[in-house]
C-alpha cells in the first residue's frame, strides 16, 4: 500500500516536504490544493470568496479520492481532516503522516503569504484556535513528526525512517 498522505496545519510544510520526500523515495507527488486550483481554474482564495468553504470542502474530498494512487505521495490541504470520511479514506488507502508545527512557527511561515483565506484576519488567534480544534483529528495519523525546529532534509529522513520500519510499506 504505497500511498502516503501528509497531513498537518497550514504552513506545516506538507507541500515542501512532499516534494523532497518524492525525490528521496522516487515516488510521484500530488498536492490536493494545487489540483483543486487546476480543476476549478481559480485560486483557493477565489473559490472561498465565490463558492464558500463548504463548496471548497466538496472539491477537496472529490480530488482526494481521485489522486490517491499507489506509489504516490499525496500532500493535502490543512483542513482535509475535518471530514471524517476523508480520514477514514486515507487510513484505508495508505499511511498517514502528521506534520506537527507549533503555532508560533506557523505564524512565521505564513507571515508573507495571503493565499490562505482562513488566515486572512486575526491570524494569530485563528492559528491557535483552529490548531487546537483540529489536533485530535491530526493525531489519528500513523506517525507524527514535529517540524517546528527541523530542516526539510531532517524531516524527510525522519519520515523515510518511519516508512522503512513499517511492514505495510514496500521500498
Ligand atoms: N522545515 C521547514 N523549515 C523552514 N521553513 C519551512 C519548512 N517547511 C516549510 N517551510 C516554509 O514554510 C512555508 C509553508 O510551507 P508549505 O507551503 O509547504 O506548507 P503547507 O503545509 O503545504 O501549507 P498549506 O496547508 O497552506 O498548503 C513555505 O514558505 C516553506 O518554504
Ligand atoms: O487549513 C485549511 O483549512 C486550509 C489549508 C490550505 O491548505 C487550503 O486547503 C485552504 O486554504 C484551507
Ligand atoms: Mg500545501
Automatic annotation (TrEMBL):
Binds 1 Mg(2+) ion per subunit. It is an enzyme of class 2 (transferase). It is found in: Cytoplasm. Keywords: Amino-acid biosynthesis, Aromatic amino acid biosynthesis, ATP-binding, Cytoplasm, Kinase, Magnesium, Metal-binding, Nucleotide-binding, Transferase. One of its GO terms (molecular function) is magnesium ion binding. Mg(2+) binds at residue 15. It catalyses: shikimate + ATP = 3-phosphoshikimate + ADP + H(+). Substrate binds at residues 33, 57, 78, 134. ATP binds at residues 11-16, 116. Transmembrane segments: none annotated. Pathway: Metabolic intermediate biosynthesis; chorismate biosynthesis; chorismate from D-erythrose 4-phosphate and phosphoenolpyruvate: step 5/7. Its EC number is 2.7.1.71. GO terms for cellular component: cytosol. It comes from the Bacteria. It holds the Pfam family SKI. GO terms for biological process: amino acid biosynthetic process; aromatic amino acid family biosynthetic process; chorismate biosynthetic process. Its cofactor is Mg(2+). Belongs to the shikimate kinase family. Catalyzes the specific phosphorylation of the 3-hydroxyl group of shikimic acid using ATP as a cosubstrate. Monomer. This is Shikimate kinase.
